[in-house]
Specification:
3-stranded mixed beta sheet, 41% helix, 252 residues, alpha/beta, 6-stranded mixed beta sheet
C-alpha cells in the first residue's frame, strides 16, 4: 500500500510511522485516519516488528483536523453538510476517525509517540492513543476545541492524567508544555534530544521477544478498568506501588 499522508519505514525490529503533511503542520485530512490504521495493521502483521514509533514530520507533531480542508472548502464534505444539520452524519464520520486512531491503542505492538512542536485538538487524540508519550520540553499538547465543541472524541485524557487534571484541561482548553506534562506522566526531554530519546526507548523495548511485549497489551484493558476503582487508586498512592507502576494517579 502506498501512503499519501504518512511515511512507513522499518529498521530492525522498529516500525516508524511519520505523519507527513508538514506544509499543513500534519493536519488531519480525510485520508490520514485510515492510513494510520493501515500502517498499524501492517506493523502488527510483520513478525519482525516489535515496536512502533509514531512521529510527525516538519515543525510539529499534529495541529488537529485540517480546517482548511473541511471548514473552508466550498460545498459538502465529511466535515460540512447542508442544513438541516444531521448529527448522525457528523457522528459517523467522527466515529470512523476515532476508531482509526484507536488502532494505535489496540495495537499488539507497543507504540511510542514522539511529540515536538504542537499536538493539539485531534493531534492530541492521536498522541494519547500511544502507550508512551515522549515530549520535547518546549512542545505543547492540549485540546482547545473543548471551549467550543466539547469533549475529545477519544476521551483519553482521563485515562492518561486522571479525572481531576483531565477536567481542568478540558474545562479551560489550555495547552501544557513538556515540562508541565511531566507531572501528568509524560516523559519530557530536551529539545536537542527529542529525536533520539524515543528511538532509544524503542530500541530497549524491541529487544524483548514479540510475545513478551504483546501479551501485556492484550491485558491492558483490565489494567485501565482497575485503575478507575477507588481501591486501586488508594493502593497506587503508596510510594512503593506508585514507583512500581511507573505513573502517578491523580487524587480526586
Amino acid at each position: 500500500m502506498t501512503f499519501e499522508t504518512l511515511l512507513y519505514e522499518t529498521a530492525g525490529r522498529i516500525a516508524r510511522i511519520t505523519l507527513n503533511r508538514p506544509e499543513r503542520l500534519n493536519a488531519i485530512g480525510e485520508k490520514m485516519p485510515g492510513e494510520i490504521r493501515a500502517a498499524v495493521e501492517r506493523a502488527n502483521a510483520d513478525e519482525a516488528i516489535h515496536v512502533i514509533v509514531l512521529a510527525g514530520a516538519g515543525r510539529g507533531f499534529c495541529s488537529g483536523y485540517d480546517l482548511k480542508d473541511f471548514a473552508e472548502t466550498q460545498g459538502e464534505n465529511p466535515g460540512v453538510q447542508s442544513m438541516p444539520w444531521d448529527p448522525m452524519i457528523d457522528y459517523r464520520f467522527m466515529k470512523r476517525c476515532t476508531d482509526d486512531f484507536f488502532s494505535l491503542w489496540r495495537s499488539y505492538k507497543p507504540v511510542i509517540c514522539k511529540v515536538h512542536g504542537y499536538a493539539v485538538a485531534g493531534g492530541s487524540d492521536i498522541a494519547l492513543c500511544a502507550d508512551i508519550v515522549i515530549m520535547a520540553e518546549d512542545a505543547k499538547i492540549g485540546y482547545p476545541p473543548a471551549r467550543v465543541w466539547g469533549c475529545p472524541t477519544t476521551a483519553m485524557w482521563v485515562y492518561r492524567i486522571g479525572a481531576e487534571k483531565a477536567k481542568r484541561m478540558l474545562l479551560t482548553g489550555d495547552l501544557i508544555d513538556g515540562r508541565a506534562a511531566k507531572a501528568c506522566g509524560s516523559r519530557p526531554t530536551r529539545r536537542n534530544t527529542a529525536s533520539t530519546r524515543p528511538c532509544a526507548c524503542a530500541t530497549r523495548a524491541s529487544r524483548f521477544p514479540d510475545r513478551s511485549v504483546s501479551a501485556p497489551r492484550i491485558h491492558r484493558g483490565q489494567l485501565m478498568s482497575a485503575a478507575r476503582t477507588p481501591s486501586f487508586r488508594a493502593s497506587a498512592a503508596r510510594p512503593g506501588i506508585q514507583a512500581a507502576t511507573g505513573f502517578p494517579l491523580a487524587r480526586e
